[in-house]
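Chain A, query sequence.
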Amino acid sequence: MTSLKKLTVLKNSSNNFKEVSNSTDHEMSYHNRGFGNSKGAQGNVSNLKASLNALFQSYEKKCKEAEEEQQKLKQPYLTEKKGKTTALNTKFEDLGKLEGQVGVYEERIEKLKQDKINIKRHPENYGVEVDSRASVKFWIGLSLIIPLTLYIFIFYISTSFSGFFRTFDPSTDLFGGMFYPKALSEAWEAGILEFGFIVFIPFVFFGLGYLIHMFQQKSGIMNYFKIGMLFIVTFLFDAILAYLIEEKLYDLNKSLTDPPFSVSYALESPGFWVIIFAGFISYIIWGLVFDFIMHEHADRDKIKIHISSFNKEIQNQQKLIEKLNIQIDAIRNQIHELEVRISELDSIIEGYIFPIKDYQYLASKYFEGWIYYISSNLPIGQEQKNNLLENCHEVYEGHLLDLNISNGTAPNQIFKKSS
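Chain A, predicted structure.
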């Protein structure tokens, strides 16, 4: 028997073959054929098995040769294949468009990454007006403002403590009056308010430098007036510190005939002006350097802002790519499903359709004729006859099981030759 492989079971009924119609004559023909074969073999079980196989091969051959009927039965699958093929081509077109869009977005990302590099080298090409040496100037200014900051802390902590809280001894000179190493420790011993005063007073002068920078950001006479008032106030504070320190130094060396310390004497004393300018000049320089650093930092920020915008745009493009990739994966799955179904349809079209129910019915008629002879005409004892009939039934059921059609409920079944 030709090697057969089951593919699937058809769920829809189809027209019966002309050669195997269910007419009464045809039924009787198979019944009589079974009766005659049983008579010739005297109901032998082995002969029944061979006869059933021969019956199936003959019926299968008729099914295969009935090309017109096979084409009718396969027409739904041919139509479905045509539709699936059209859908597959459409999906490939959609896939190509989406992959093309992904390629466009990827090119944009690469360009944005290159722009991030190029804007640092040639910012003018991107409409960013910055000093090409802004970064170098920034670091130079930063290297200057750090030691200036430390100097202002040391100077004003020391002079503030010396001017307001310290008692000088006879060995104290001008430098010792300005810079006192024990200012912090003795202020701490004097009390929390004294300590807080000398620790935080340098920030007054840092605030001056910051305000100078902020007022310079805006033009106008009022802003220049504010800057001038800040200089006057801080200069007066420096003058007070210088006056207090110079007075203490004067009193240490004053004789009974010397006049009391006065503003006029302070204005004529070189030490008074040294103390003033040791502080005043330092925070003026600090404020100018701070303004310079902020200006250069602003130039650097222009580039950073553009780079940040490039990064955001890259993220947006990547999100679009992610969304497209989800659609691409879905289409690829649909393509795979269509290809699998088309392959199944090809197998159906290349194979043949076997009418299960028709064969089962005619085979049953053949078997009825076979056992009818045994039951009515075979000259053997009743017990032997019953055993023979039981064995024949087993062979018949085994035949249907071997063909995998014994319990089929669908009217037709698709078969394909094994390779």
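The chain has two domains: 1-65+365-419, 67-99+129-354. The CA atoms of residues 134 and 289 lie 14 Å apart.
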